UniProtKB/TrEMBL annotation:
This is NAD dependent epimerase/dehydratase. Pfam families: Sulfotransfer_4. Gene3D superfamilies: P-loop containing nucleotide triphosphate hydrolases. The chain crosses the membrane at residues 254-272. InterPro entries: P-loop_NTPase (IPR027417), Sulfotransfer_4 (IPR040632). Keywords: Membrane, Transmembrane, Transmembrane helix. The keyword Ubl conjugation does not apply. It comes from Cephalotrichum gorgonifer. The lineage of its organism: Eukaryota, Fungi, Dikarya, Ascomycota, Pezizomycotina. It comes from the Eukaryota.
Length: 276
């Protein structure tokens, strides 16, 4: 019997939204600000945070896609799977780095953006943001809640695959992550994107040279909006976003458990008091 896939629960739309912009950059390269900018321009962008906010079903789809890519488990995602997953989205940011080669092949008509920065600045940002998040998924209370909360379990499992990608450790070997290896993978990814995307379809922006409306709007064919370009999140803001999303899911789970367990607890008290 074929293995059940999470993506199969997503409907097949006759006319999924056209993918017009795909950002190929690793995270911590101005991608959240770029996601917000594309939202302002009307693209309905999908970011890693969109995946987390969408809940367990989207996290599982992301994880299974990476399992197919890294571990050869299941079918590697192509146009069919992406059209289901991102049916309502005209732009992909951050999440797209994990499937960059396949997205370039699936949507050759799109425009592509690659933001990058000095490798030392990038790895420092990773250390200040993603590493604390990685550590949190393996410790209290997230690790403990993963036993009772589906969202937390999928978040922790998917984060492990994101970590394997970011640290250029596709096999998930223990104890081999290093700044040097991560930077090698980061530079290799950026070089590959420049090779596989036609130059006229790719905007390359170095953060140290500036990233704003002046860079992206001419490339995308938009007038520059009247509002300021969205400021990228600093490490402190980043480390507040995910816990806020997780807590919202926990409140729902704990409310459900309270509703289910309350009669059981009441019956136990009644029995302990000698009830018949």
């Amino acid at each position: 019997m074929p293995r059940s896939r999470a993506i199969d629960a997503f409907p097949v739309l006759e006319h999924p939204r056209e993918k017009k912009v795909i950002v190929l950059s690793y995270g911590r390269n101005g991608t959240l600000g770029l996601h917000n900018a594309l939202q302002i321009l009307g693209y309905n962008s999908y970011h890693v945070m969109s995946c987390v906010q969408a809940g367990a079903s989207h996290l599982r789809v992301a994880r299974e896609g990476m399992m197919a890519r890294f571990d050869g488990v299941g079918k590697r995602y192509g146009r069919e799977e992406f059209d289901r997953w991102f049916a309502d989205n005209g732009a992909l940011v951050d999440i797209s780095a994990y499937f960059a080669d396949d997205l370039v092949a699936a949507y050759p008509q799109a425009k592509f953006i690659l933001t990058h920065r000095e490798p030392s600045a990038w790895i420092r940002s990773v250390r200040n943001t993603l590493v604390p998040l990685e550590e949190a998924t393996a410790s209290f209370p997230i690790w403990h809640m993963s036993f009772v909360d589906t969202f937390t379990r999928e978040f922790a499992r998917t984060t492990r695959y994101w970590r394997r990608f970011m640290w250029s450790n596709p096999a998930g070997e223990e104890g081999v992550n290093s700044d040097e290896k991560a930077i090698e993978g980061y530079l290799r990814h950026n070089d590959r994107m420049k090779k596989i995307v036609p130059p006229e379809k790719l905007l390359v922006v170095k953060l140290e040279d500036g990233l704003g409306w002046e860079q992206i709007c001419p490339f995308l064919g938009h007038e520059i909006p009247d509002e300021p370009y969205p400021r990228a999140n600093n490490p402190k803001e980043f480390l507040e976003i995910v816990p806020r999303i997780i807590r919202s899911h926990w409140r729902k789970t704990l409310a459900t458990y309270a509703t289910v367990l309350a009669p059981v607890v009441a019956a136990g008290v009644w029995y302990a008091k000698g009830g018949r």
